[in-house]
Amino acid sequence: MHPLVVCSRGVIYHFIVETAVVPCVLAAFFGGWEVVLILAVLLVLFVARITPEFMSGLGRGLLEFRNAIGEVRQELNRAPHESALVYEALAHDNRTAEFIYPHQFDLAKLVRAMILFVAQGFGIGRIPFAPGTFGSLIGLVWFATLLATTRYELYLAGSLCGVGLSVWICGLAERILKQKDPPSVVLDEIVALPFCFLPWVTHEWLFRHKLPALENFFTGRSLLITLGIFIVFRILDITKPWPLRQSQYLEGGWGVTLDDLLAATCVALLTLFFIL
């Protein structure tokens, strides 16, 4: 196998080492959660080094949300006279009277900021470099969180609730941004990832009557299968073969979310070859 070489700023990185050898070495010394966290940190540091726009894009998303929260907090903390419009007028007995009208802060602005913050994967979607891929990495964290519940019904309920949230939030984000399926909206990738592993999880639950441990997906040979599932999901989501591309013509959040669910369904069907 010939390694794919990627050059940046005079530094040569061997892709095969980044995607296969390093995870396997980590898996030999650490458990599931440790591997996930270490890979996430390494990936952020790697991309931040070769792509300065990574941190600036993520920072913009977090800054906009923080500013919106700060404006509302500032308004709520003001004294009544400071947060109101005060008018003076003469009363009927020629004495001065003050009329105080409460100041209206822009609540709609805060709501829009919160919607975009969630729809854009808590700021991840603002990264100009492959936002869908980084959103899918957050999807692995969501997958790990569902596994941590240790209950199959909670895994299913959480996955389905995530889909409902994505349809709603992504539809609102489309209207706010005035764009069809905006690239910065990555909540759909996040909620779709757990469905890629659903047959694997279901198989373990049927035979062992409990959810598999996180180590079953992020250690040893299973880690390579997890990486393969992730890569195939990204390929399908990017290329959008039939019927993924056609599903995007649906209105609102369904058009944003359904293509990722179909991609996850295709990946889930492929995983049957590993578990049957």
Outline the secondary-structure elements:
Blueprint: E1 5-8, E2 11-14, H1 15-29, H2 32-50, H3 53-77, E3 84-90, E4 96-102, H4 107-119, H5 131-147, H6 152-177, H7 187-196, H8 198-208, H9 215-218, H10 220-239, H11 244-247, H12 252-275
Antiparallel strand pairs: 1-2, 3-4
Helix pairs in contact: 1-10, 3-4, 4-6, 5-7, 6-7, 6-12, 7-12, 8-12, 10-12
Quick take:
The protein has 276 residues and is mainly alpha-helical. 68% of the residues lie in helices and 8% in strands.
Question: How does this structure look, described?
Answer:
By secondary structure, the chain is mostly helical. The chain has one domain. 68% of the residues lie in helices and 8% in strands. The chain is built from twelve helices and four strands; from the N terminus they run E-E-H-H-H-E-E-H-H-H-H-H-H-H-H-H. The protein has helices spanning 15-29, 32-50, 53-77, 107-119, 131-147, 152-177, 187-196, 198-208, 215-218, 220-239, 244-247, 252-275, and strands at 5-8, 11-14, 84-90, 96-102. The chain has a two-stranded antiparallel sheet. A two-stranded antiparallel sheet has the order 3-4. A hairpin with a 5-residue loop joins strand 3 (84-90) and strand 4. Helix 6 (152-177) packs antiparallel against helix 12 (252-275) and helix 8 (198-208) packs across helix 12 (252-275). The protein is globular and about 55 Å long. Mean pLDDT is 75; it is low at 1-29 and 79-91.
